[in-house]
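Long-time lurker. I teach an intro course on protein structure, and each term I like to show students one example going from raw sequence to a predicted 3D structure in token notation. This year I'd like something fresh instead of my usual example. Would anyone be willing to generate the tokens for the chain below so I can use it in lecture? Attribution to the forum is fine with me.
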Amino acid sequence: MGVEPGPLRLIGQVVALLANYCWVELDQLGPTGLSRLLCTRRTRLGKSGQTIAVGDRVWVDGIDWPAGRAAVAALEPRQSLLERPAVANVALVVVVVALAEPELDLLQLTRFLLTAEATGRPVQLVFSKADLVSPDEVASWCQRAAAWGYDALAVSTSSGEGMEPLLQRLAQPGIAVLCGPSGVGKSSVLNRLCPELGLRVAAVSGRLQRGRHTTRHVELFAMPSKPAAADALALFPVAAALVADTPGFNRPELPSDPVVLAQAFPEIRQRLALGLCRFRNCRHLGDLGCAMGTDWPRFSLYRQCLEEVEAIASVPSRVATTTRRRTSRRQTSQGLSRPGREDSDPDHP
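-- Reply from a regular --
Happy to contribute to a lecture. Here you go:
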């Protein structure tokens, strides 16, 4: 349920998180013409277990206009949430991976795509640094992605290849999140689309071929209608196209539920739409009666992910079994060592 506006209470959107503070962009200008406030969080939100994420719609109060400060008093219900990096109310998840420097890792890419699919929002796959490989290799990767169920875009921040289609994809109302491994060029892509941003970038480590973390926190930026728009950093309207630049990381978590994992593969969703498996608890590993079979491109990657999920899921049960056995042995030992203790009989208290 939403929160009704009260005295000196205004609504806005969280556009950045910094330590224990957040920047909130207001839907309307304040009396001093200020549109952005540095906010703390009311204690009651923490006590109720509510966390604030970039993209949240929030109500602020206790506004100090001269100082540009306020406090987040309440959160509006979220429409979606990308858990890592945490971004609320996402409309589009853009997974960015490089075709070179660093070398593309198929399993890592699959994990990022699974994280994106978990939001239930459309997913756009982007291959960056397309200028570092041959046109044939670029075409081959795009064809491979199409077989997975993704209409991928290949881009180059050096030549500008693919930037216009990407800009059109991003310039839709709502929040688009750029996520992917470190060093793939997410900030460079945004700088090319909107030079006024001037986001910090760094070269990939030459020795280890690993990306360097240049983006330290999640932040929303307004997407211009064209790359060099003069009003790129103007006040955000409610329906503006916003893009979140996120810190890179290299190992997204997998869904903990095997059923959720399977549904995060577009190939499985598409094939199951044509015919169901014989058994409701099918693991989709090509067993008798499985509608999937093993003749799909990412089958080996799916199997590897499923084995990891099942291995993790089995750990708590093994620990619980061991704990129960130890407890039982301890209780038995204690019972035998106590003089005068008799076994209880439910019929004879």
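Some talking points for your students: The longest strand covers residues 10-18. Residues 254-335 form one domain.
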